[in-house]
């Protein structure tokens, strides 16, 4: 057969190099590859949507979790290819295509190489053609569930057990809420089961397995258990201070928090906050926000915050009119009344690159409102500072048509070139970096922001850098696997570590504090009778804050699956880290003196509990074994 294999179909092209297996079009997922002879994996991509506005990354890890290949795809590379060699071995390589992806990826390797695909859950992971088939395996005694979600393409999943032909049909229905999906329990057996999966319908496909390994193959002979060997993490800590750690905060609600929420908010221990100010509300009632803003400052100790001007009902595209100017005047008066305690950044629009049709529209309101802020020196004395542009994403474009003309970094560059003296801080929001291996993008975006504003003689940004809203997904495009599980804890810890790594960031805020009916993306779950409960990410935030120190120290780290931040406060020293992979990591730290004075190692796992862990310290090296998917904190005294 000479045709290209289509979209998950298995095709063989016989040529001088032997038989090839092809996968496509993958948009979000992992492909595990285990070769029994030397092979080459080739990835090709074509544009899917707004590719020319978005950089992307591909990662290839070996069977010990070591990064063997990383490919930065520039926004201009809407089409291209990348090849990597695969060495024979018992443990599988992992080729990572992080979602949300703006390109469609087609992968080719030798048919003798075992290939298992792990799709994303709830979010669509591929685009397929009607009738495409895959196979999956259920081990004896497993209570497996087949699940899928309708994204406008594949409308049903048909599973057929190979041994006896038993069939199950799962219709995928449209739902009002993104996070709703369909599922069906598969029979439990004392024997291993192999099932054939048929995808019915063409286009975007979301399918996955729970209760068993979420792995699919193109033929049943490739359904082998996945092997991942233990990894090695080598760290070297230095006493060089790079900068300060950012204030970690949350987006707080537009109301006075009820007393029942106080204990939960205290557990999160935010030191920064994101607010909105609704100009249509404050234009009518200038003192509407005074009580809860005072409470957030005095009761909860928020000393650094950013407010975005907007209208109620999520109106983000303000105009420089009487209502907006009156609303801003009310906010400024309320800020002066706070007594000059802290720094209060103001942004004149919420994600203008997403919500305004052009840069000129945004510049008009920025110029008008900046002049209003600067007209009264009392505003600066009260701690008021101007932040811009509070864009939807920074390096990459927003989720909008013509995104290449609306990248946040480009709008910020233009505004700085025209009105740098009116700007005190660069602010942005980061969404849709859902993959644990792709969170290093946060470090890159902070570095790019610092490069844009420039550094002073001490190596610090000339304008404060504020990553004032972030979450795995924007809006309500949420998955319960993302928001309600330990995965979110791993993700948040990794984002905190990567964004803080170079000591350049002033503020990092999770969006948002508590779940709302249409946006269940909080650190707190709202129960009946005004009860509040920490979600897994809330417990992780509590663990992070318990071990958060003031300064960032230079740390060398050769691992890819383990992120670590070195910190110091006076004589205190600490490492905060996270093992994002499932494999055990053997960690070796040099640069700390043995014995570690008052040294302690704590682990935080999927049970949302912190526990003591053993470590060894001899000959100037600290060593410990770090389980998979675990946060850790190592603390000691330098005196």
CATH class of the largest domain: Alpha Beta
Give the structural class.
alpha+beta
What's the tally of helices? 12
Poorly predicted residue ranges: 1-18
Q: Count every beta strand, where a strand is a DSSP E run of 2 or more residues.
A: 37
N/C terminus separation = 71 Å
Radius of gyration, in Å, reads 26 Å
Mean pLDDT: 94
Overall tally of domains: 3
Tell me the strand order in the biggest sheet. 34-33-37-31-30-29-18-32-36-35
Largest sheet: 10 strands, mixed
Classify the helix fraction into a percent range: 10-25%
Shape: globular
CATH topology of the largest domain: TIM Barrel
Strand content: 35-45%
Based on the coordinates given, report the CATH architecture of the largest domain.
Alpha-Beta Barrel
**What's the CATH superfamily of the largest domain, by name?**
Glycosidases
Describe this structure in words.
With 639 residues, the protein is α+β, with helices and mostly antiparallel strands. The protein folds into 3 domains: 20-226, no CATH class; 246-262 and 269-476 and 496-515, Glycosidases (TIM Barrel); 555-637, Sandwich (Immunoglobulin-like). Helices cover 18% and strands 37% of the residues. The strands form 7 sheets. Strands 34-33-37-31-30-29-18-32-36-35 form a 10-stranded mixed beta sheet. An 8-stranded parallel β-barrel has the order 19-20-21-22-23-24-25-26, surrounded by 5 helices. α1 links the parallel β19 (247-251) and β20 (272-278). α9 (441-453) packs parallel to α11 (486-500) and α11 packs parallel to α12. The protein starts with 19 loop residues before the first strand and ends with a strand. The model is unreliable at 1-18 (pLDDT under 50).
């Amino acid at each position: 057969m000479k045709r290209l294999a289509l979209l998950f179909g298995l095709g063989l092209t016989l040529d001088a190099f032997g038989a090839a297996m092809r996968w496509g079009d993958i948009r979000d997922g992992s492909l595990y590859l285990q070769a029994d002879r030397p092979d080459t994996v080739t990835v090709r991509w074509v544009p899917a949507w707004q590719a020319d506005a978005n950089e992307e990354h591909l990662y290839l890890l070996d069977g010990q979790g070591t990064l063997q290949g990383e490919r930065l795809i520039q926004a201009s590379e809407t089409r291209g290819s990348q090849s990597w060699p695969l060495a024979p071995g018992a443990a599988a390589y992992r080729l990572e295509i992080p979602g949300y992806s703006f390109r469609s990826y087609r992968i080719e390797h030798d048919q003798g190489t075992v290939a298992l695909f792990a799709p994303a859950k709830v979010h669509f992971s591929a685009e397929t053609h009607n009738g495409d088939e895959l196979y999956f395996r259920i081990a004896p005694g497993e209570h497996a569930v087949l699940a899928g979600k309708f994204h406008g393409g594949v409308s049903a999943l048909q599973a057929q057990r190979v041994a006896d032909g038993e069939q199950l049909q799962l219709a995928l229905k449209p739902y009002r809420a993104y996070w709703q999906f369909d599922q069906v329990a598969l029979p439990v057996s004392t024997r291993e089961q192999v099932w054939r999966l048929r995808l019915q319908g063409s286009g975007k496909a979301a399918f996955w397995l729970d209760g068993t390994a979420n792995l699919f193959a193109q033929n049943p002979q490739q359904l082998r258990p996945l092997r991942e060997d233990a990894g090695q993490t080598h760290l070297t800590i230095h006493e060089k201070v790079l900068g300060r750690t950012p204030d970690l905060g949350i987006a707080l609600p537009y109301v006075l928090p009820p007393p029942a929420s106080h204990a939960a908010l205290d557990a999160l221990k935010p030191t920064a906050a994101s607010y909105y100010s609704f100009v249509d509300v404050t234009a009518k009632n200038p003192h509407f926000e005074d009580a809860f803003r005072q409470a957030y400052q005095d009761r909860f100790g928020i000393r650094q915050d950013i407010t975005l001007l907007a209208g109620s009902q999520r109106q983000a595209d303000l105009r420089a009119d009487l209502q907006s100017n009156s609303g801003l005047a009310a906010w400024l008066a309320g800020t002066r009344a706070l007594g000059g305690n802290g720094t209060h950044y103001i942004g004149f629009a919420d994600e203008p690159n997403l919500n305004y049709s052009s840069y000129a529209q945004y510049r008009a309101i920025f110029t008008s409102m900046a002049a209003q802020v600067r007209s009264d020196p009392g505003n600066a004395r009260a701690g008021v500072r101007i932040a811009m542009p509070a864009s939807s994403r920074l390096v990459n474009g927003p989720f909008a048509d013509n995104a290449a003309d609306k990248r946040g970094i480009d709008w910020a560059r233009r505004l700085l070139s025209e009105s740098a003296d009116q700007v005190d801080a660069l602010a942005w929001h980061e969404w849709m970096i859902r993959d644990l291996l792709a969170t290093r993008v946060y470090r890159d975006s902070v570095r790019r922001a610092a490069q844009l504003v420039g550094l002073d003689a001490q190596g610090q940004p000339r304008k404060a850098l504020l990553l004032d809203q972030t979450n795995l997904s924007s809006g309500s495009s949420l998955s319960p696997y993302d928001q309600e599980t330990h995965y979110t804890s791993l993700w948040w810890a990794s984002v905190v570590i990567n964004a803080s790594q170079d000591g350049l960031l002033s503020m990092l805020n999770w969006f948002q504090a508590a779940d709302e009916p249409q946006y269940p993306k909080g650190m707190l779950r709202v129960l009946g009778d005004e009860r509040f409960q920490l979600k897994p990410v809330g417990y992780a935030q509590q663990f992070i804050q318990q071990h958060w120190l003031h300064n960032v120290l230079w740390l060398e780290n050769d691992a890819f699956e383990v992120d670590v931040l070195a910190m110091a406060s006076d004589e205190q020293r600490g490492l905060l880290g996270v093992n994002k992979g499932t494999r055990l990591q053997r960690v070796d730290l040099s640069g700390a003196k043995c014995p570690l004075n008052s040294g302690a190692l704590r682990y935080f796992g999927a049970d949302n509990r912190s526990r003591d862990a053993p470590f060894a310290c001899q000959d100037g090296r600290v060593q410990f074994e770090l389980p998979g998917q675990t946060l850790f904190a190592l603390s000691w005294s330098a005196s």
